[in-house]
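Re: that backbone. Tokens:
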């Protein structure tokens, strides 16, 4: 006797690194029946079928979501509103919808704009996992293992829908935590969005120097570690800057003031300010739990 998989029909809109990795993981665990992909680029979707990430695809998201039990929107933040606007009239009555966007306030604003209210079946989410690579070919089933996934359910969110999305992510090996929307955006501005701004700016500043070839030739491990994330997709990061503008600007201002203070200490040869800062930072870094 055959039992129904946990999600009989899953629709992933945006079969890239995150959407593709989620589909791969759930398939590997046998937690999904059919997986339908959607996106703008047919070649990427054909590759997704070829790699076994999805069973079939439909370029038109309004067709792709028909009959789906769970719809995962895994497109760049700037495209979530337009995707939602297209699919909402075509969702099954029982469908649960979630997203994976790296900022949550903008997604909630998109939801409110499209629906005119907060629908109970939408569970906003954000897996804290990724690489600097994009596209379905970069996806892999273990991406979320031992990583965190943040869900930001709202007062209106249906408890059963919330549980379903929580369990879906737990099947990928992730630890799922709930957080308020604003708290999520403040925390992520500090831990992810600001570091990406620093990496992009550092690489860009050095790449515009006359002797850049010489400089990059001598770049050692530390430079590689620090700047790996500057290879991330520019469009995606543009969208994150726009989506989390206020929180990110606050973090940039805080960091700029501290950097300026360090510059002042270096200018004045103020050994105690420099050492105090480095020692404080080393202590904090050594005590961090970072895997
Ligand atoms: P990705 O590999 O580039 O995948 C995004 C997919 O979305 C692509 O396959 C693209 O396919 C599709 N897409 C783009 N615009 C679309 C549109 N207007 N309509 C339909 N499909 C569209 O990017 P990703 O890294 O998976 O990121 C996806 C989401 O995850 C973003 O919201 C990002 O903020 C979030 N996220 C990323 C990371 C990370 O480290 N990468 C981590 C956590 C969360 P087509 O070109 O075929 O349309």
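Recovered sequence:
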């Amino acid at each position: 006797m055959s039992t129904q998989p946990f999600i009989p029909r899953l629709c992933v809109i945006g079969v890239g690194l995150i959407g593709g990795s989620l589909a791969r993981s759930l398939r590997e665990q046998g937690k999904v029946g059919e997986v339908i992909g959607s996106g703008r680029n047919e070649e990427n979707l054909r590759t997704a079928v070829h790699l076994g990430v999805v069973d079939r695809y439909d370029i038109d998201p309004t067709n792709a979501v028909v009959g789906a039990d769970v719809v995962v929107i895994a497109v760049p933040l700037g495209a979530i509103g337009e995707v939602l606007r297209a699919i909402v009239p075509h969702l099954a009555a029982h469908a649960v919808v979630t997203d994976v966007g790296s900022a949550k306030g903008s997604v909630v604003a998109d939801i409110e704009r499209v629906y005119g209210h907060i629908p109970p079946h939408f569970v906003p989410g954000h897996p804290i996992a990724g690489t600097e690579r994009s596209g379905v070919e970069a996806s892999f089933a273990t991406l979320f293992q031992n990583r965190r996934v943040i869900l930001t359910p709202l007062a209106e969110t249906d408890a059963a829908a919330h549980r379903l999305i929580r369990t879906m992510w737990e099947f990928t090996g992730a630890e799922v935590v709930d957080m308020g929307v604003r708290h999520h955006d403040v925390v992520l501005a500090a831990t992810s969005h600001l570091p990406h701004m620093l990496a992009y700016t550092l690489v860009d500043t050095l790449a515009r120097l006359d002797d850049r070839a010489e400089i990059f030739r001598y770049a050692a491990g530390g430079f590689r570690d620090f700047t790996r994330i500057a290879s991330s997709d520019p469009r995606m990061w543009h969208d994150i800057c726009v989506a989390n503008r206020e929180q990110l600007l606050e973090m940039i201002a805080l960091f700029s003031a501290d950097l300026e203070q360090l510059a002042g200490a270096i200018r004045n040869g103020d050994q105690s300010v420099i050492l105090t800062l480095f020692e404080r930072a080393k202590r904090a870094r050594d005590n961090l739990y970072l895997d």
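Residues 13-19, 39-41, 44, 74-77, 79, 83, 100-102, 126-127, 130, 134-135, 233, 236, 240 surround NAP (CB under 6 Å). The radius of gyration is 21 Å.
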